From TrEMBL:
GO cellular component terms listed in the entry, alphabetical order: plasma membrane
Record's keyword terms, sorted: Cell membrane, Membrane, Sugar transport, Transmembrane, Transmembrane helix, Transport
Membrane topology summary: Multi-pass membrane protein
Name of the protein: Maltose/maltodextrin transport system permease protein MalG
Intracellular or extracellular location(s): Cell membrane
GO biological process per UniProt: transmembrane transport
Entry function: Part of the ABC transporter complex MalEFGK involved in maltose/maltodextrin import. Probably responsible for the translocation of the substrate across the membrane.
Keyword Transmembrane helix attributed: yes
Length: 274
């Protein structure tokens, strides 16, 4: 009994230490975003001082950052729409292949995504410069979609695999085409998995930095890159930078619990009558 109790306590202590290590930068950033300018560099550090929203007010009033935030929303939402339009039919088709062929095709799809993003920067920049799309949201949407589609196909094929084949076959016996079966049967059953995948794609596009830094200048700059405006060569405005980082975290904090719930749970719960 004592040995089991000791193991539980040890496990809790390790988990707490890991959680503290993982979340301490986020908590420190949140604390910094709420500090008064005079509290930024005090020693010993001020963990919880007199909260102030002045940094949030300042960045919202900043036209450059507000415009970049809107660009992030437009690019991320457009990436979701284009990615899902391409990935859902592909994933549906792959899930209906024979198991050996499906595994090989999925491995190839994932291998395309596994290559380091760094090797694509120069070719993509030269291509988009040639077609006059540098510093446009279209370029970012195209690049984000190209990197999102392989992962989306991988996720969605797993959700479509959970759709009972008996339901699809019954629909086809009743005269439904493959397209009708996908849109009227499989997609509604796998809707929560599709929504969870869409959220993961949104988060990936929302956090994308490397291509956004390379392919944008002013007009199409997104929020992840605009944070650098608060970190000029002369000196960093830590309050505004921290507030901008916290705003960037809001969609992730909102959406991640939903993704965890529906990715971990069964897709077809309640879809088949006993």
């Amino acid at each position: 009994m004592r040995r089991d109790l000791g193991r539980h306590i040890y496990g809790y202590l390790i988990s707490a230490a890991f959680a503290l290590f993982l979340f301490s930068p986020i908590l420190w950033t949140l604390s910094t975003s709420l500090k008064q300018p005079t509290e930024m560099f005090q020693w010993p550090p001020v963990i919880v001082g007199e909260p102030s929203a002045q940094h949030y007010t300042a960045i919202i009033a900043d036209k450059d950052f507000s415009s970049a935030l809107i660009n992030s929303i437009v690019v991320s939402c457009s990436t979701i729409i284009l990615t899902m339009a391409l990935s859902i039919p592909a994933a549906f088709g792959i899930s209906h292949l024979q198991k050996t062929a499906m595994r090989r095709l999925l491995t190839l799809v994932l291998a395309l995504r596994a290559a380091p993003a760094m090797i694509y920067i120069i070719p993509y920049f030269l291509f988009f410069r040639q077609v006059h799309l540098v510093d446009t949201k279209i370029a970012l949407i195209i690049v984000n979609t190209m990197f999102a589609v392989p992962l989306a196909i991988w996720y969605l094929s797993a959700f479509f695999d959970q759709v009972p084949r008996e339901i699809e076959e019954a629909a086809m016996i009743d005269g439904a085409s493959t397209l009708q079966t996908m849109t009227l049967i499989s997609i509604p059953i796998a809707k929560y998995g599709i929504l969870a995948t869409a959220i993961l794609i949104f988060i990936g596009s929302w956090n994308e930095f490397l291509f956004a830094l390379t392919l944008t200048r002013d007009d199409a700059k997104i929020a992840a890159v605009a944070i650098l405006n608060f970190m000029p060569f002369e000196g960093t405005d830590w309050g505004k930078a921290a507030a901008a980082c916290v705003l960037m975290l809001v969609p992730i904090v909102v959406f991640v619990p939903f993704v965890k719930k529906y990715v971990a749970g069964p897709t077809t719960t309640g879809s088949v009558k006993g």
